[in-house]
From TrEMBL:
<dbReference type="Pfam" id="PF05504">
    <property type="entry name" value="Spore_GerAC"/>
</dbReference>
<feature type="signal peptide">
    <location>
        <begin position="1"/>
        <end position="20"/>
    </location>
</feature>
<comment type="similarity">
    <text>Belongs to the GerABKC lipoprotein family.</text>
</comment>
<feature type="domain" description="Spore germination protein N-terminal">
    <location>
        <begin position="24"/>
        <end position="193"/>
    </location>
</feature>
<keyword id="KW-0449">Lipoprotein</keyword>
<dbReference type="InterPro" id="IPR046953">
    <property type="entry name" value="Spore_GerAC-like_C"/>
</dbReference>
<keyword id="KW-0564">Palmitate</keyword>
<dbReference type="InterPro" id="IPR008844">
    <property type="entry name" value="Spore_GerAC-like"/>
</dbReference>
<keyword id="KW-0732">Signal</keyword>
<keyword id="KW-0309">Germination</keyword>
<dbReference type="InterPro" id="IPR057336">
    <property type="entry name" value="GerAC_N"/>
</dbReference>
<keyword id="KW-0472">Membrane</keyword>
<dbReference type="Pfam" id="PF25198">
    <property type="entry name" value="Spore_GerAC_N"/>
</dbReference>
<dbReference type="InterPro" id="IPR038501">
    <property type="entry name" value="Spore_GerAC_C_sf"/>
</dbReference>
<feature type="domain" description="Spore germination GerAC-like C-terminal">
    <location>
        <begin position="204"/>
        <end position="356"/>
    </location>
</feature>
<protein>
    <submittedName>
        <fullName>Ger(X)C family spore germination C-terminal domain-containing protein</fullName>
    </submittedName>
</protein>
Length: 358
């Protein structure tokens, strides 16, 4: 395990050197791979996950090759500058892979806006930095790094990118948060980090509606939303009878009924389903399962979409599509965004084609 970790960090050091960082520059800079930000009564706390470059170069080094620094202060800018002053090292965020916000910080509009204005103005972190939320204490979450074979930031990056179900890697980033805070027209989902077997794990998603934190929802609802939006290459589904299905070739299409006071979006969801834990015996069996799965999936999507709308969450993310299909309705609700989800109806129709791959 140590050899693998050492090799990773040696490669990382080489990449830093190839980017134009000489030995002297490296000694005077710190390169966080993950940054956590949570609220405090008198400000906020920032937790950094740094690779210990001096240990990487030591062939006889033992133990962890990362260090956690936890600092609190009035705001992110103050904490950053105090750290740099006390350590005589500047913080270089160019290799940061993950930004983790506490739920409390995400919901605090004043603190969140102040941080985002500073980060965006200073181009503090790359726009493609992955964004997470957590309800764990930040120091505890970052302490889980000692149980991982890779630094926390790299682990979280691979946790998202290894999921092949995401189409075009439509994963929440800092840049998307910047954009949505300004545009305020989408329903987005930020992965929530919890703990399982002493390792970080995505345990749910936080809904971002019109650029602001709404509430936490299950991973299942977030996946259904991405399904209806055509953002998934595939997903696994267990029906009421215990059959395990692999859903692929997902093609949603949309149609709006042009009624301003009661907008309706009709979604026709076509997909292919293969049975994973059994074999189809004949065409009658296949036809029966196809009809059952189609009906069950359709009922579930309609039920969950309606329940989400009652909480003000549009899992079809339809307002963004409204501009191309029904401009009059789009303009009408542009100044009435709070009314849109209250008046909206979502009607899902599924078309499932079962294939037997056994």
């Amino acid at each position: 395990m140590h050899k693998k970790r050492k090799m990773f960090f040696m490669l990382m050091v080489l990449s830093l050197l190839l980017c134009g960082c000489g030995d002297h520059e490296l000694e005077n800079r710190s390169f966080p791979l993950a940054v956590g930000l949570e609220s405090e009564k008198q400000g906020c706390r920032v937790v950094f996950n740094f690779p210990v470059l001096s240990e990487v170069a030591n062939e006889n080094a033992d133990g962890s090759y990362t260090a956690v620094a936890s600092k609190k202060g009035r705001d992110f800018f103050t904490i950053q500058k105090n750290y740099e002053k006390n350590s005589s090292k500047s913080i270089d965020f160019s290799h940061n892979k993950a930004l983790i916000l506490s739920e409390e910080f995400l919901k605090d509009e004043e603190k969140l806006q102040k941080f985002l204005e500073y980060a965006k103005t200073q181009e503090l972190m790359a726009r493609n930095t992955y964004l997470f939320v957590t309800d764990l204490k930040m120091e505890h979450l970052f302490g889980l790094d000692q149980n991982l074979e890779k630094p926390l930031g790299t682990y979280l990056e691979e946790l998202l990118e290894s999921d092949e179900d995401y189409k075009d890697k439509r994963i929440m980033t800092l840049g998307r948060l910047y954009d949505e805070r300004q545009n305020q027209m989408e329903t987005l989902y930020i992965p929530v980090l919890g703990e399982k077997d002493k390792e970080p794990e995505v345990t749910g998603f936080y809904v971002l509606r019109n650029g602001k934190a709404k509430e936490r929802v299950s991973s299942e609802l977030a996946m259904e939303s991405m399904l209806l939006q055509g953002k998934l290459k595939g997903f696994s589904y267990q029906d009421a009878a215990g059959c395990e299905w692999r859903i692929t070739k997902i093609h949603p299409s949309y149609e709006f009924e042009k009624n301003i006071e009661h907008p309706i979006i009709k979604i026709h969801l076509a997909c292919t389903a293969s049975l994973e834990n059994a074999t189809l015996t004949d065409w009658k069996h296949e036809e029966t399962l196809e009809r059952t799965l189609e009906e069950e999936l359709q009922n579930r999507l309609n039920t969950d979409a309606k329940a989400a709308l009652e909480k003000g969450i549009d899992i079809s993310n339809s307002y963004k599509k409204l501009g191309n299909s029904y401009r009059k309705g789009y303009v009408y609700y542009e100044e009435r965004r709070e009314e849109y989800e209250k008046n909206l109806q979502i009607k899902v129709e599924t078309e499932v084609s079962v294939v037997n791959l056994k």
